Here is the input.
Amino acid sequence: MNRRLLIVGAGSIGERHARTLREMGASVTLIDERADRARQIAAQYGCSAWYASLQEAPLDQFEAAVIATPADTHMAIAHACAKAGLHLLVEKPLATALPGTAELIMECHQKNLTLAVAYVLRFHPVLERVRQICQEGTLGRLLSLRVVCHHYLPSSRPDYRQTYYVSAAGGGGVILDLSHELNYVEWLLGPLHLSYSRHASVPELGMPGEAIADLSLVSEEGIPVQIHLHAADRQTRRECHIVGYRASLAANLLTGEIFLYDSSNSCKRLEHRSERDDWHRAQAKDFLDAIASGAAPRCTGEEGLRTLCLCLQAMTGRFSTPELSDSCRTIKG
Here is the structure.
């Protein structure tokens, strides 16, 4: 592979992108305003160069950019890179607000640029198998879906007080931070519509956004969906439970297990263990293949925007605004 890629942001997720892309043989250049951090990561993974700002980097020398900065900076960076003709893999969420999102999607279409959103759980082997099971009709007509994602933020992210978690504008609440769950459910069922949301803060965590959220949604086929997100539960869970007319399914994304229960009450166990870097390698390959072939990536800009719209509806309780209507037209178009 002889691809020249730019990674903007050398935090924990930017480092993971650098590691997996270098393992795949790509030429990687890093940008991070923390010069010491950029220098360290570049040296650790054999990156070609590093810069302290986007303005310093010769954008026309790169084929694509991975944007792994705080979410409220995504749009400005993405527009600058698209203007220079770079294909884009934007970390989730696509943004923290709608302005600029529809314009970015249209610009990438006009320039034939790949725009992918890094909802990496679409590459989790458990969810890939769950999707296959649903599409094969093993469960029969789907009746309901329930998703749980719980963690204890001080343990799962000890440095969270030095990150976007302490900024409401930066997406520091569970709805945007754990929007993977909304996104993968739409990958399984298709577009969702929010019925109601309820959320609460946990002041002891010191984060301005919501730390607990309950979302009730429905698919276009009428399948009810419940999603529960929690950042203060010491019992870590990431699970998906689907009930069909012929069988039920329970998937555990942490253990890599799927349990199928049929009408005779028998249980079949499937195992799909993986490491987080495996998902990122698969995502990187999908992105690079999309650039080469012109095919759509697994999570398109439109799909990322749909997830953002659901998140903003859930966070604000405002299910219909002119901006949301305009964004919906972009998604459908």
